[in-house]
Amino acid sequence: HSLKSILPTMAAGKKELLMLENFIGGKFLPCSSYIDSYDPSTGEVYCKVPNSGKEEIEAAVEAAREAFPAWSSRSPQERSMVLNRLADLVEQSLEELAQAESKDQGKTLTLARTMDIPRAAQNFRFFASSILHHTTECTQMDHLSCMHYTVRTPVGIAGLISPWNLPLYLLTWKIAPAIAAGNTVIAKPSELTSVTAWMLCKLLDKAGVPPGVINIVFGTGPRVGEALVSHPEVPVISFTGSQPTAERITQLSAPHCKKLSLELGGKNPAIIFEDANLEECIPATVRSSFANQGEICLCTSRIFVQRNIYSEFLKKFVEATRKWKVGMPSDPSASMGALISKAHLEKVRSYVMKARAEGAQILCGEGVDQLSLPLRNQAGYFMLPTVITDVKDESCCMKEEIFGPVTCVVPFDSEEEVIKRANSVKYGLAATVWSSNVSLTHRVAKKLQAGLVWTNCWLIRELNLPFGGMKSSGIGREGAKDSYDFFTEIKTITVKH
Ligand code: NAD
């Protein structure tokens, strides 16, 4: 299979750098300049990513514009078949893609194999199916001899911008609904993790995706990202990333009144009531705090525990956290790999230092325990899962998104108090509630300011239902119907008979 040949190049590391190319109009095109991409587990440059700009966006817009009439005229059934073939090809290349994702991002190979890449395939498969099941509306006004009905049309060229934490997973979560609905796309993955998007391009022709339907342009946010967002012929932008970038994207798209979907950060609380089943709650909360090195927008970073079980919870939680092994991403016994970049590692560590300076206690992890790594990985961006306590709600560790393996644990007394404290941050993405009292979980879930609430579990997703955040966690939702709404225009037609 074509993707197999990529792996030896990647394994050669320093000697032979992996050179990515843009994919525009069905062709791989070199770029006039490149940026370095690092292997997070060694800190070495192993790949060169095109440093695209306006010129490449112009070319991609042209290709997407040309491809649009034919693609948008195909029936949903025909588009669905293409998406299903793409899902098959991603599944067939699962191992190659998982290895590449793990090397590029620093996540464990186990996670890439069991979550990231299967989900990327599922995204195509899911939208291949869901596109077949939408209906439009029709109403009548007999007294005026009128009937009204709605039609849906694709919006046009969709600009898709994705982050580095779940690279192929989040990119395909945008590409799949956009093309299923008949749009053509220009996608810009994160410059820190571009490899699997480039590998995906190698599968498109075989899947039957016509040239120009999916264009992938690589490079940095300020250069190529802004060129995409500001382009007048790209009327719809779907963005997943940080809140400051969303602010910039909103400003740039305002003059064109673009349709925007913004999936942003979180400061997600876990609320653990005294009647919670700790046997289930503790391992799930360790996972929700530290999975993917804590680099998931849905990760828990504030744990509120009811006071009479606080000491017991804390003791068991720290014990369980200490068992999470940080290691080489390829090590099957590792629960955590490396963080994405040196700059990010330093940022995450700085939060732990700030907490300590404020008088908080660091119970395990950064600055407390020793991290032992093979010689080759000592310049990698590793850090231990870290638990902070005795921290005030006003502390930056309890207010700001850290996006790393750091979680705070604090006690609470009453239901009313904990809801208020959980809601006291600017974000509103996800929350978890642990209790064996069903009416309590429903009551609390309803009052939490979060787009997603999991009770007695974490990160179980039903792709049909809306995904997204409130407050500074974003605008809009993604999911079967929501993505369809976003990637189509609706028109109401009135017929007098
Ligand atoms: P980021 O905002 O720095 O970058 C995201 C993407 O935007 C990248 O492709 C980047 O190159 C691009 N970008 C940066 N500046 C840009 C600009 N001026 N114009 C256009 N594009 C620009 O975010 P990140 O650090 O890659 O990702 C981490 C953030 O993403 C966290 O805040 C995390 O919570 C959030 N996130 C949210 C979700 C969600 O579904 N809500 C999922 C994953 C990650």
TrEMBL record:
EC number(s) given by UniProt: 1.2.1.32
Reaction(s) catalysed by this chain's protein: 2-aminomuconate 6-semialdehyde + NAD(+) + H2O = (2Z,4E)-2-aminomuconate + NADH + 2 H(+)
Any one GO biological process: retinoic acid metabolic process
Keyword Cytoplasm: yes
SUPFAM superfamilies: ALDH-like
UniProt entry keywords in alphabetical sequence: Cytoplasm, NAD, Oxidoreductase
The protein's enzyme class: oxidoreductase
Sequence ranges assigned to domain Aldehyde dehydrogenase in this UniProt record: 33-493
CDD domains: ALDH_F8_HMSADH
Pathway entry: Amino-acid degradation; L-kynurenine degradation
General function of this protein: Catalyzes the NAD-dependent oxidation of 2-aminomuconic semialdehyde of the kynurenine metabolic pathway in L-tryptophan degradation.
Family: Belongs to the aldehyde dehydrogenase family.
Protein name: 2-aminomuconic semialdehyde dehydrogenase
Organism: Cricetulus griseus (Chinese hamster)
Lineage of origin: Eukaryota, Metazoa, Chordata, Craniata, Vertebrata
